[in-house]
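Translate sequence into structure tokens.
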Amino acid sequence: AGRLTEATAMVERWLEQSSARPNDAFEARAALARLMIAQGEPGDAAAALDPVRDRVISEGERAPERLDLYARALAGAGRIDDARAIFDGRLEDGDELWFRLFTSAAVALHRTPDAARAWLEEAESTARAYPALMTHAAQAWFDLAGITGQTQDFQRVISVLEPIENIERSPGVLLLAVSLEQVGRLEEAETRLRQAIDAFGEQPVPLNNLAYLLVRQGGSPDEAVRLAERAVESARGQGYPPRQLAGFLHTLGKTGGPSYA
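Result follows.
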């Protein structure tokens, strides 16, 4: 917290000294907004960018991270209409970048889940006209479900993904598998996890999840150990951070496999 406060003070001084240099002032405002978001102050973040709103929007395709920051700040501050107005006329042609920016703003509404759901329902409605966007819509619902923990949100992931043709060969199959598990449809979750492993090979997450699911269901202990060992080996080989690796090692211990660090 102390370092963030110090950094904020430095950026505020930068902004004060940049009043005669529009480009520097613009960069200072963006930096200040990022710091405000990091400190859980979306209202202050939005206020920092309000004076340069038109520029943030006009440069959205060249600098989408700033537009994403502004939209999340507005949404997080409860200025939902202002956040929505950023995207007026930009979603109708199915542009993937603008759609992803739109859906990412929903996470900022997690304190008011019903508002987030209304936001994502609009996104889903748009995506139905452009099938390539449906997985992005499902990811947004999945992100919200991870925050709320609500069955209804995991069910929306399922309802978006299940109708997609060849979903078993899409990255969305893992979202579908996890969501099925969360709503208690365990046999279907197992099938989808096996499809994810078949499609994407030695990826730690589906290997780990299937191992854990087999333990939970009382499935083959030998297979569970093999899967968990593969997950750990793959995670180490891909340089996964220690916290995630610890989760895979925990699953390995649950399977009855060797406990090693």
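Note: The radius of gyration is 22 Å.
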